[in-house]
Write a structure and sequence with these properties.
The protein contains 8 helices and 7 strands. It is of the alpha+beta class.
């Protein structure tokens, strides 16, 4: 624009000196006006009818710009009659060009800062959703621990009088279990192998409670042991299976946990027998399974990762853990 201004003024039979000064003054003042608009838009973005106000300011700035050009250039070259005439005759054209350019500056500034504000708003929204999700996940884990702890303490209390050695052993195992829980609170993802080691601690406690009535079997494919799983996910579902399989029966119950890789998922199934005469499959869909369902939804945004079926006196819960993300 500076070059164009200089060339036009020189083309109209004005010396190079006047053409250069005219260009520098015109473009310099217009640049300052544009920067003023951009600076204003950084702190104030118009909306709705406020657009009229911002473009009114562009109009005022264009008038001020033209007046300053007139005053400054007339001060330096007012004695040049030919240039003074050209200056006065060009003021309407200068005003039109200045207003259009300032309007363009304004529109570009509004679009730019609106996009930036939208990005910041989206980032804040995502951060808030992330914090809310993390808080809910933490709450779900915290709700499960008192539930299990309450049952364990009741069992220890019952064992103290009749089987004090088993009560002591159960206290030690409970201590190890809770210590592992605290360590894993800060870990989002662990390998299936680590999760099963943690699950063994829980099952040892339950076997003290139920004695020979409870037996477990793991059917784990080798390739699945290093696949990733949300920490502390399996204990609630196994606790649900124990509750569903043992509480309404007096005989021996076997809980079977199987795991394999299927496509891009880690597939985990937990099965337990139940007596339809004394138990209802509805009882097996309590807080434990609901908490897992909710946790999986918060992590993956899907509601189809946990399914439960009751068939032929067997209750089966199947969890699918997507392995498409990097869970380091």
């Amino acid at each position: 624009m500076l070059t164009d201004n200089i060339i036009v003024i020189h083309y109209l039979n004005q010396p190079w000196e006047i053409a250069i000064v005219d260009g520098l003054v015109s473009v310099g003042l217009l640049t300052l006006a544009g920067l003023l608009i951009i600076h204003t838009l950084r702190f104030y973005l118009p909306t709705g009818k406020q657009y009229i106000n911002i473009f009114s300011k562009c109009l005022i700035l264009a008038v001020i710009w033209v007046l300053l050009i007139k005053v400054i250039l007339h001060f330096f070259y007012g004695q040049n009659a030919a240039y003074s005439k050209l200056l006065y005759e060009s003021l309407p054209v200068r005003f039109s060009i200045g207003f259009l350019l300032l309007g363009c500056f304004t529109m570009i500034g509004i679009l730019w800062f609106s996009q930036q504000e939208q990005k910041e708003s989206e980032t804040r929204k995502q951060d808030a959703e992330k914090l809310a999700k993390e808080a809910e996940l933490f709450k779900l884990r915290q709700q499960l621990q008192p539930h299990f702890l309450f049952n364990s303490l009741n069992s220890i209390n019952a064992l103290i009088g009749t089987r004090p050695e088993e009560a002591r052993r159960m206290v030690q195992q409970l201590s190890e279990f809770l210590r592992g829980t605290i360590k894993k609170e800060d870990t989002d993802w662990i390998s299936l192998k680590e999760e099963l080691q943690y699950l063994e601690l829980y099952l040892n406690i339950e076997k003290v409670r139920f004695g020979n009535r409870l037996s477990t079997a793991f059917q784990i494919d080798k390739e699945s042991t290093e696949l990733k799983i949300p920490a502390l996910l399996l204990q609630p579902i196994v606790e649900n299976a124990i509750k569903f399989g043992l509480y309404d029966t007096t005989g021996q119950t076997e809980i079977i946990l199987s795991a394999k890789k299927e496509g891009g998922h880690l597939l985990i199934a937990v099965t337990n027998p139940f007596d339809p005469a004394t138990a209802s499959p509805i009882h097996g869909t309590g807080f434990g399974l609901k908490s897992i369902q909710r946790r999986l939804y918060l992590l993956f945004g899907r509601k189809d990762l946990l399914t439960s079926t009751a068939k032929d006196n067997t209750f089966t819960s199947i969890i699918k853990i997507p392995q498409t993300q990097n869970h380091e």
